[in-house]
Specification:
Layout (H helix, E strand, L loop, with lengths): L4 H7 L9 E5 L6 H13 L15 H7 L6 E4 L2 H8 L5 H4 L8 H12 L8 E5 L7 H12 L5 E7 L7 H5 L2 E4 L5 H10 L16 H10 L1 H13 L4 H13 L6 H19 L9 H8 L4 H15 L8 H13 L5
Parallel strand pairs: 1-4, 1-5, 2-3, 3-4
Helix pairs in contact: 6-7, 11-12, 11-13, 12-16, 13-14, 13-15, 13-16, 15-16
The protein binds zinc ion.
Length: 336
């Protein structure tokens, strides 16, 4: 099954003429890339497809797509991402360390691809993921290609932060807005991925099933489980800092920034509980007794301090000291 069924249907209907450039926007991990891959495969498939039908999966074009070797398809992404995709061991956290930008050279190569005719006589597709990895100079050189008319060339761009894109890029593409899929759809999809038992984690990942999938596959979910259980049954802050340093060193792919983000979610939810609202990421029953021990001003103070700490999370001078600082500030509201 495909996540975001209604978007798929809107792009693959009987009378749909896809525009030259599509821009998929929405939160991380809601299935934008899966849908873009499926759409690219369908556009390139050599067996005629009925409305809403995915690519056949058997023709020469589909096999070339499956092998990542289709001559009429280009994937443009930051080089750190392609390296990480080749090596499944690399986790999200490691990707972040190296080059996250699409280089101008990659767009120049695309120009050649655009101007030289297709190899197989059908459509040609270029997927750019994520579009915000292009700085204005790079994006402008892409714009020059987008402005040239073409009937069988499709650009699919993906963006998690479309507001940071050049207005000219936005105006030349049709935006398709993704949101977290309905929960039942996500559950069915997780079941298909043999992750039915992990569906309880959907709220923690902002209902983004693909984020949950990546965490489960990389082993990060196991480490997150320990982290969450520490947050729900907090002990002495410095002892926790030592434990968390172990989690980061465990090589499960959990980075210090993941720790900070999780603490931020926890403080956010404590605040919601404190004023009688349902938490967004954590389980209400587990969180409510903790929320009783805090005050709103103390939570807000901790949130502010930890937002500042986050700026350093990718390169702390001394990880242990950083984590001690994080824990001391995070658990301070529980003393009030
Ligand atoms: Zn096919």
């Amino acid at each position: 099954m495909i996540l975001n069924e209604d978007i798929w249907k809107s792009l693959t209907g009987p009378d749909v003429r896809l525009p030259h450039a599509l821009l998929f926007t929405g939160p991380v991990g809601v299935g934008k890339r899966e849908l873009a891959d499926a759409l690219a495969a369908r556009l390139l498939c050599e067996i005629p497809r009925g409305p809403h039908e995915p690519a056949c999966g058997r023709c020469p074009s589909c096999s070339m797509m499956a092998n990542g070797q289709h001559p009429d398809f280009r994937l443009v992404q930051p080089e750190a991402e392609s390296a990480a995709e080749e090596d499944a061991k690399h986790s999200e956290g490691e990707k972040k360390k190296t080059g996250r930008q699409i280089r101008i050279q990659q767009i120049r190569e695309l120009e050649d691809f655009f101007h030289v005719g297709g190899h197989r006589g059908g459509a040609r597709v270029c997927l750019i993921d994520p579009a915000e990895a292009m700085n204005p100079i790079v994006a402008n050189s892409l714009l020059k290609i987008l402005e040239e008319p073409s009937t069988s060339f499709y650009f699919i761009m993906i963006s998690n932060r479309w507001r940071s894109l050049l207005p000219t890029l936005l105006s030349r593409s049709r935006r398709v807005v993704f949101a977290p899929p309905p929960i039942e759809q996500s559950r069915r999809w997780l079941e298909e991925q043999k992750l039915a038992g992990e569906a309880k984690w959907l709220p923690f990942f902002g209902q983004a099933p693909r984020q949950l999938f990546d965490a489960a596959r990389s082993g990060r979910l196991k480490a997150l489980e320990k982290l969450v259980s520490d947050l729900l049954r907090p002990s002495e802050p410095l002892a926790l800092a030592a434990r968390w340093e172990g989690l980061v060193k465990d090589d499960a792919g959990l980075g210090i920034e993941d720790l900070v983000v999780t603490v931020q979610k926890w403080l956010h939810d404590l605040g919601l509980c404190r004023v009688g609202h349902a938490p967004r990421y954590f389980d209400r029953d587990a969180l409510a007794p903790l929320a009783q021990r805090t005050t709103l001003p103390a939570l807000i103070r901790a949130q502010r301090q930890i937002a500042q700490l986050r700026a350093w999370a990718n390169h702390p001078l001394n990880p242990r000291l950083f984590l001690e600082d994080l824990c001391l500030r995070a658990f301070k509201p529980l003393e009030s």
